[in-house]
Write a structure and sequence with these properties.
globular; 6% strand; Recoverin, domain 1; two-stranded antiparallel sheet; mainly alpha
């Protein structure tokens, strides 16, 4: 379950990253965002990489910020066979660290740095925050159900025509059976980290996008 949903967020972000990076590299990099040196310190990107990312970001979003509608439109291009709006909503909220309804370039690259080049613990904490929809410090069965339904909606029924209607709930049950160590109905960050770090498949998925740019 974790590998599926974390892979979706990371791979989709990577597709978007490659799009804007490709656009940025078509032109000479000469635009320098305010606070670039600070972002070099806050992320694991070089100054040149940040310049390329910023140029591409501005091409996609001339205003310098991404609102939720634009974010959803970007993701919908990659999943025409499904409905990505709900998953994009959850992902947007994870990127919107200031909870102000918009994602700035700074918000974007700080999260991107964690997803692509962060430590295992950093990546797991970011994923936990994505699943913890109301940000109260634990993942409930209802939250994971919403996440799984959004992933299956995004992939589309035609992607897996033989998929049973119960598949999302089966994944939720598997998630809680594995993660909820004390059977109290919620998964805490401690349970999440402990379980993930002992799972070989999850650990391998954490390295899928190391140093891709």
């Amino acid at each position: 379950t974790f590998t599926c949903s974390s892979g979706c967020s990371a791979s989709l972000t990577l597709v978007y990253l490659r799009n804007i990076a490709d656009e940025g590299e078509l032109s000479t990099v000469c635009y320098r965002p305010e606070g670039l040196d600070r972002l070099v310190q806050q992320t694991k990107f070089s100054k040149k990489e940040l310049q390329v990312l910023y140029r591409g970001f501005k091409n996609e979003c001339p205003s310098g910020v991404v609102n939720e509608e634009t974010f959803k439109n970007i993701y919908s291009q990659f999943f025409p066979q499904g409905d990505s709006s709900m998953y994009a909503h959850f992902l947007f909220e994870a990127f919107d660290t200031h909870n102000n309804g918009s994602v700035s370039f700074e918000d974007f690259v700080i999260s991107l740095s964690i997803i692509l080049r962060g430590s295992i613990t950093d990546k797991l904490n970011w994923a936990f925050n994505l699943y913890d929809l109301n940000k109260d410090g634990c993942i409930t069965r209802e939250e994971m159900t919403d996440i799984m339904h959004s992933i299956y909606d995004m992939m589309g029924k035609y992607t897996y025509p033989s998929m049973k209607d119960s598949a999302p709930m089966d994944h939720v049950d598997s998630f809680f059976q594995k993660m909820d160590k004390n059977n109290d109905g919620v998964v805490t960050i401690e349970e999440f980290l402990e379980t993930c770090q002992k799972d070989e498949n999850i650990m391998q998925s954490m390295h899928m996008f190391d140093n891709v740019i």
